[in-house]
């Protein structure tokens, strides 16, 4: 059961991965928007940061890996974009609130948020999943979104509304024997996303989720090392026959954050190459 955060980037040139390359010209989809992204130092988050900036947004990137964040920020600025970085520990609610506060200090408002950061579970069956794994999954893959969404929504209300996109997982939609705690928290995130969409509709805040399937990003290498054959199984179970590139996932998030998705809220959108069909 792979997704954007379970499979976060393949650096090994010999590792199996998608060979598909996305080439789309920017169209100003997010022009003038201030966007906050978590898990933005690598994989889907970094791809989203580059894409959102190219589409005209001012982006504030958050993650624990500040060196990697700074590299992405420099790339975006070198291409003429507006980007800043802030350190973030998703397991610490105070750190999350401070990061959103940093966005307010920089820009005075928040138009959209891509809550993409997550923690991987040690792969293994339900009866060998440790209490520590469950606690980490709860703190990072569920509670962090609860905290972030509330802080983001509070800032968005002051600006008249906004949009939030949460990265869930294809593994949230069905039994997840290899990653049981991860799948459970991601399914809970789907429920939270839908509830927030209904609760905050009157505030003009749209809330949606995406459920990526196998994506060629860094953590797939670690998962493949721990469980050889994972990549082959992902490709075989995906009707399009390959894993996604990170930008292909980011493209869907960009659309959901844009005004072109103005009538979409409470949706949990599959982005899985047909694997969940």
If strands are numbered along the chain, what order do they take across the biggest sheet?
A: 3-2-1-4-5-6-7
Proportion of strand residues: 5-15%
Biggest sheet record? 7 strands, parallel
CATH class: Alpha Beta
Number of strands: 7
CATH architecture: 3-Layer(aba) Sandwich
Q: How would you describe this structure to a colleague?
A:
The structure is a single chain. This protein is an alpha/beta fold and 277 residues long. The chain has a single domain, classed as Rossmann fold (3-Layer(aba) Sandwich). It has eight helices and seven strands; from the N terminus they run βαβαβαβαβαβαααβ. The protein has a seven-stranded parallel β-sheet, with helices on both faces. The chain is globular and about 45 Å long.
Quick tags:
globular, disordered N terminus, seven-stranded parallel beta sheet, alpha/beta, single chain, 8 helices, Rossmann fold, 277 residues, 14% strand
């Amino acid at each position: 059961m792979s997704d954007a955060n379970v499979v976060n980037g393949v650096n090994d040139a010999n590792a199996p991965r998608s060979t598909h390359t996305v080439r789309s010209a920017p169209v100003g989809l997010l022009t003038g928007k201030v966007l906050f992204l978590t898990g933005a130092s690598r994989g889907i988050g970094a791809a989203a940061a580059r894409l959102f900036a190219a589409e005209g947004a001012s982006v504030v990137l958050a993650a624990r890996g500040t060196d990697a964040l700074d590299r992405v920020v420099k790339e975006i600025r070198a291409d003429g974009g507006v980007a800043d970085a802030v350190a973030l520990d998703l397991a610490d609610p105070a750190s999350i609130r401070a990061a959103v506060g940093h966005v307010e200090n920089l820009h005075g408002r928040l138009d959209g948020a891509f809550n993409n950061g997550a923690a991987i579970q040690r792969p293994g069956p339900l009866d060998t999943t440790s209490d520590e794994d469950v606690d980490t999954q709860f703190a990072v893959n569920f509670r962090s979104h609860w905290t972030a969404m509330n802080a983001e929504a509070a800032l968005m209300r002051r600006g008249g509304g906004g949009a939030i996109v949460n990265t869930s997982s294809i593994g949230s939609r069905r039994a997840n024997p290899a990653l049981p705690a991860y799948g459970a928290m991601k399914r809970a995130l789907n429920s939270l996303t839908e509830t927030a969409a209904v609760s905050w509709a009157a505030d003009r805040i749209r809330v949606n989720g995406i459920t990526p399937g196998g994506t060629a990003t860094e953590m797939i290498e670690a998962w493949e090392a721990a469980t050889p054959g994972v990549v082959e199984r992902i490709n075989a179970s995906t009707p399009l026959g390959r894993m996604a590139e990170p930008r292909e996932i980011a493209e869907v998030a960009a659309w959901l954050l844009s005004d072109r998705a103005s009538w979409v809220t409470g949706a949990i959108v599959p982005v899985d190459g047909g694997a969940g069909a």
